[in-house]
Amino acid sequence: MTRAMNRWAWLPWCGVLSSAVLMVLAPAARAQTRFVWPTREPAYGEYDVEECAAAVQRTQAYAAWGARYDTLTVKARLLRPESPIVVEAARQCTAHLVLAQLPATVQPTLLRLWLVAGEDSTFIAALHALVARLSAPAERAARLADAAFLLLDMHPIRLALADSVAHELDRLGGPGSRAAFGVYIHLLTSAHDVGDDALGAGDLPRALHAIATYAQFDSVQLRSSPQDRAAVASGAAALQRIGTRDRLLSEQGAAAFLDSLRHDLGAQAGANHLHGPDSAGVVQVALHGGGRPAPPIEADFWFGRPDSTAAYPRKGMVSFVVFLDERCGPRCYYDYDVLRRLKQRFGEHLDVVVVTGTKGHFREAPPLDFAAEAALLRGYFLERLKLPAALAVTNTPFVTLPAPDRRRIYDQDGAPVWGVYGIKPAWPVKARVDGFLIAPSGLVVGQRDVLNDQTELTDLIADLLAYQRAHP
Amino acid sequence: MSGRTRNSLRTATPPWLAALFGAPDKKFLSQADCEALVAQAEQYAQGGGETRCTVTSWWSGELRWARNRASLASDRRNDELGVGRRIQGAEGGVRTNQIDAASLQGAVQAAERNAHYGETNPDDHREPPPRFDYLTPAIWSDPTFAQPAGERARAAQAIIAPAEQAGMLSFGFLAVQAAGHAVIDPAVGRPLYAPYTAAQCSLTVRDPEGTGSGWAGASSCDWTRIDPAALARRALEKCLASRHPVTIEPGRYTVILEPQAVHALVRPVVGDFYGRLDAERSTDGPFHLRPFYSKLGLQVADSRVTIAQDPLDPDLGVIPFTDDGQPVRPVTWIDRGMLTHLAYWRNYALEWLHDNDPIVNRWGYRMAGGSATVEDMIRSTQRGLLVTRFSNLDMLDPQSLLMTGVTRDGLWLIEHGTISKAVKNLRFTESPLFVLNSIEMLGPPERVFSPDSPAIVPPLKAHDFSFTSTIDAI
């Protein structure tokens, strides 16, 4: 034993010697850890599905940075393709992910990634495989409905695929009818926005069938649930909006409601415009508030009026009076572009009047008097934004509280409200941007706080002008 | 006022250390250094837009002791650089303390990456430069900047010795700091730079048997205004006087609060002066009746209470600009008990006040006092408590500023105009707004120990101060 120990006695000394050598030869150790900003590329191949989804979302945000879609029509927005770097990111992510190996809770995430990557066929095949594994019709309906809404939410929108998924919902019968009804509403609305009239015409009867199936399948529920009836009514109203305007809906019994709906929708199937003798009916229908007359616009400053002697809104003209506030900024760029497109389409036949109010300041400029601020507003709306409109600037009345508060209160009852216009009591402005469509007779035909020139707003203007031509 | 070379026997600084953190024999970056650093960062900027930087370069010398023995002596420095990039209205920023070229480039690129996740704004516009002139307060002290470590050691010895001789244990720290704060923002129009110094001393003397504790502390821009020996004497006296405390019933008492205790209560009040910054949506806070309605113009405190901030106050010491480059202006928050100002941003001033200038001051305040000394207050008290300071404060109700906390480091019962006995610490549940409306006497204000923001407060005597329970901690 001692001999063995003596044999290895040199070993520890070797360790000491080698350590000493290393200490002498090794470079001086750094006392601080240096931080390096991470700039490495995403490792898509190593991400799980949720990390992939987050990475793709980040890439989408990065790709969309600085891009503005304000001047795009709704159709162009829906058909806008995904950015190539986003598609590539999704492809790299999905290359290593296998649907069967994922938990059920994250499988829809992978389906979405396939769509972003443009692998529509893979998506459809996987969807069919997932649905085939489900036994309960209600579960199948839910999965198909989710898939359909996902397809309608993508860029570019997948109308044809959503349509085929909706047809599969139809084949499920009763359990799928409620989901199908919702899908068809979304599908028909999108088809109208995109201008796919053929798909709209083809799916309208299917939508009706889905409503009828749902009503029969769940008539007890409909009778007992005002919420469900309201949901069906609002859905049917959406159908009406896309070209089957006839009458306003109200809560009715399920059978009577469906009967009237079937009759009306059947009569107006596929129609987007009404002209001629029915235009009067349109105007009557559009008078939600009973056709109140539009009050005159009393402004302190006018700019860009074609006729400086007439009272606005002008009698005998179709007018669109829009209340705007410059503080809306880029959020209202789309609304501004709607005004430009309306004016471009209808020309001198349509009066566009923009009404805004003074606030005592403009952007970051120092406090201003009314005239100076009105001049800046003219520069902003008419020169910078180039709105093809007459600009009416009202001096908003205010009260100054005594010191030390010193606030300016822009409303008489002492409750300061942002965006109040000087003529608020006469015009029931409800939102930051509010538009009133006024018929040549001077009646308010419609009020819209979301401007969109691809829906009934444009249709109504066209109808009013057609009525005006037919009845000079 | 740039960093001066210290006498040092240290070997030459390794190049890699100097490259990362700057030359350690230079205490902090001068204005020229800050501008050169920012210019270098701007060279790395890509994609247009603006680069905005803040630099806080500081040096700190500190000595700590515990149980009458020094436990830590440090000499630290740091350069904190905040880089902001604003591209098409989208903003992104990072902070770093590595100012070598490679780190700087990485930081600028990281800020740009952050900006690329923000929303762009085609209507982006730059705020005009502030109109108000920047004041030049006296916040620099040469003796503080030049204080060697040996002087701190001698000061600590002078503090510890009396406690040790009395058989007590002394704990505490003293620190000096010198820094330069820069804001370099194209929107401001010119680079802003403010060098300043700060000095703190805080000590606690405790009985080794755990029956008594006394505290004293001070802060200032100028170390020469701090008297360590006086602080040591005061803490020792408090410790000796607070030994073997007795228990008293909690309840409502007349209290005499020393300035440090007053500061603990008033500081949250000052914090709520910044409530108008979000006044349109403000739904709570002691200075708002309801959304859009503040208590401006209303009497919120005793008429003897005036709380203000003047950057030129020689005792206050406030950097004369905010990190946004806004000048700090003199403002009186509460004037003779009436709420006269709340802070607000410039867009609030434009929108609501038809005014151009914001009030976004830095932290720091002076509370006006009176002429009564603490001894006068004691003599005038039939039965009450003398409180050294509070700690462990928690806000219970932000609307009324109802707070809870505990007394510490000296609590005495006053009976018939004299201090009769030391008492065990108590927990209070009280609102400073109630205290400011229950004032009986005020003393001359003095600067208290407050490392993060300067405060000058008086001692005060108030009635009906609520103590809710006793605590065992000494």
Largest sheet of chain A: 6 strands, mixed
- State the distance separating the first and last CA atoms of chain A: 125 Å
Tally of DSSP β-strands of chain A: 8
Overall pLDDT confidence of chain A: 76
Q: Treating each run of at least 4 consecutive H or I residues as one helix, how many helices of chain B?
A: 10
CATH architecture of the largest domain in chain A: Alpha Horseshoe
Mean pLDDT of chain B: 90
The name CATH uses for the topology of the largest domain in chain A is Serine Threonine Protein Phosphatase 5, Tetratricopeptide repeat
Query: What about the largest sheet of chain B?
Result: 6 strands, antiparallel
* H and E order of chain A: HHHHHHHHHHHHHHHEEHEHEEEEEH
| CA gyration radius of chain B, whole angstroms | 25 Å
Number of helices of chain A: 18
Task: Give the overall silhouette of chain B.
Answer: globular
What are the low-pLDDT stretches of chain A, counting only 5+ consecutive residues below 50? Answer: 1-5, 19-30, 242-290, 412-420
Fraction of residues of chain B in helices? Answer: 10-25%
CATH top level class name of the largest domain in chain A: Mainly Alpha
Give me a quick take on this structure.
Chain A has helices at 2-7, 10-25, 49-64, 74-79, 84-94, 107-116, 120-133, 137-153, 159-171, 174-194, 197-217, 219-224, 226-241, 254-268, 279-286, 333-346, 370-384, 456-470; strands at residues 301-303, 318-323, 350-357, 390-394, 399-400, 408-409, 434-438, 444-448. Chain A is α/β, with parallel strands linked by helices and 472 residues long.
